[in-house]
Design a protein that fits this description.
Number of domains: 3
Distance between the termini: 60 Å
Largest sheet: 9 strands, antiparallel
Strand content: 25-35%
Shape: globular
Radius of gyration: 22 Å
Structural class: alpha+beta
CATH topology of the largest domain: Rossmann fold
Number of strands: 21
CATH class of the largest domain: Alpha Beta
Number of helices: 7
Order of helices and strands: EHEHEHHEEEHEHHEEEEEEEEEEEEEE
Length: 367
Amino acid sequence: MRILAAMSGGVDSAVAAARAVDAGHDVVGVHLALSRAGGTLRTGSRGCCTIEDAMDARRVADRLGIPFYVWDFSERFRDDVIDDFLSEYRAGRTPNPCMRCNERIKFAALLERALELGFDAVCTGHYATLREGPSGLELHRSSEEAKDQSYVLGVLTAEQLAHTYFPLGTTPSKALVRAEAEERGFAVAAKPDSYDICFIPDGDTRGYLAERVGAERGAIVDRSGAVVGDHDGAHAFTVGQRRGLRLGVPADDGKPRFVLEVRPVTNTVVVGPKEALATAEIAGSRYTWAGAAPDAPERAFACDVQIRAHADPVPAVAVVRDGELVVTPEAPLDGVAPGQTAVLYAGTRVLGQCTIDRTVSAVPVDA
């Protein structure tokens, strides 16, 4: 196959590209320049797609003897990931920019260009596996549960899965990948993993949002609507947050209060007891299936639901109703925020996902 290897400059994508070469594929490496600031530098483990990362990727490509290019996707990244991130916060939701990047950049924009240029598939260093199932290609968890990245790939469609290649999916551990990189002489063998939001390399999400979304003082209220404090900008709060609340009125029971809801239209933050974070139902109209859809999804079907990349899956029942994917977990979920992604599984198989638009609390307001 003709393989386009997406090379971030990290150890995973380096070894993935090397394995694609070893498998006899015709491989070309590409690094995506996602920042408009061409001189962006990496700070420790923070951020990715920096100028240093591009140079690291080039050195690996040179060692493998494959062609290498840097493609400028910064405008698409700004429109589809950064602007979406800001608009979601303005709407009072908590977005996952890594999901949007996978959905709209790595497996949409990049894959579209790869297919136009005659490539058969895009290769990445994600830890997930593809299997042939009775209804076609299926996306499954990797063999290493702790490193499994199938959650952030839950946005992929059947057409995209047909043109992806995950050489690391059956590798038991990240340590083995690093050891292999060292054996191959890759300088990135000991390079730390990136974390945090790549376009906020200093990790100051609150400051980033204040500068771009703006800060305006507003009220913090309890579930009854009584004012219990104030804030400098609702965008700085997320559901489940406890720290940073300026509450002038203590709770009747003296217990800590947590953010339950952010209302951007009125610039109001709603707080309440920890018990009120329990979520009995989630739903979203922006849903997709990873491969073949479940048989008759308008009838309730059993599944597991995962709401964060490193969260444990929870048994649930899902159904498509009135244009929404509605998920009812067997036990209430804790601290779910609109804007998060819910990924559905059947065992190790990824069924699909939805962006959460609304939640239903397991605790009535008058409780």
